[in-house]
Structure formats: structure tokens, C-alpha cells
Design brief:
By secondary structure, the chain is mostly beta strands. Helices cover 0% and strands 49% of the residues. Strands 2-10-9-4-5-6 form a six-stranded mixed sheet, with no helix packed on it. Strand 5 and strand 6 (57-59) form a beta hairpin.
């Protein structure tokens, strides 16, 4: 079975930081490009950041300079370090494969709430 489980969300004040984790199982993790997505209240799901098997990264303009995506292939995990958080970052955050051809059904995600 292939499974991705997000964790690390919570409530934080504007300007604060959180680190999200995504643990993978049931896959040869190292060959896949991974990504973090988010969906805020009343908004469409959007791509936040992605990381290739070679650890090249891309970010949405809204989070560049504030968020960092990383991966640990030995642990089959992908992380999202979020600094200088803003209220607009409030959303449910999901991890998934970056390629649309390998997307899994969306899981429960992890809630990030940023207060002003």
C-alpha cells in the first residue's frame, strides 16, 4: 500500500514558524518528486512547493523566501519549514506526489492556522 501522512500543523502567531512532516510508506520514495499543497477556507487547492528526486526545489511566489521544502530519503519523508508565517498561510496542508500522473487521493492533511 502507498500512504502519505502529514503532521506538524498547529496554531501560530503571525511571524512564527512551523515545520510540517510527511511520512511515506509503500513506495520507492527516492525516485519521486514530492510536493506540498494547501487549501485555505473558500479557496482552491494550490501547489506550495515541490522537490525533485535530485532535490531541486520550486516554490509558489507567495511563499518564496519564507518556506523551505526538503526531503530525507532514508526516512522516506518530506518536510516543509515555514517561517515568517502570515494569516494568509492559514490552510489545510497536504503532501502528495508532484507529478499529476502519480497523485494519490487527498488525505486528511494537517491544519495550519496563523493568527494576526
Amino acid at each position: 500500500q502507498v500512504q502519505l501522512v502529514e503532521s506538524g500543523g498547529g496554531l501560530v502567531q503571525a511571524g512564527g514558524s512551523l515545520r510540517l512532516s510527511c511520512a511515506a510508506s509503500g513506495i520507492y520514495f527516492s525516485i519521486y518528486a514530492m510536493a506540498w499543497y494547501r487549501q485555505g477556507p473558500g479557496k482552491q487547492r494550490e501547489l506550495v512547493a515541490s522537490i525533485t528526486s535530485g532535490s531541486s526545489t520550486m516554490y509558489a511566489d507567495s511563499v518564496k523566501g519564507r518556506f523551505t521544502i526538503s526531503r530525507d530519503n532514508a526516512e522516506k519523508s518530506v518536510y516543509l519549514q515555514m517561517n515568517s508565517l502570515k494569516p494568509e498561510d492559514t490552510a489545510v496542508y497536504y503532501c502528495n506526489f508532484a507529478s499529476p500522473r502519480t497523485l494519490l487521493p487527498w488525505g486528511q492533511g494537517t491544519q495550519v492556522t496563523v493568527s494576526s
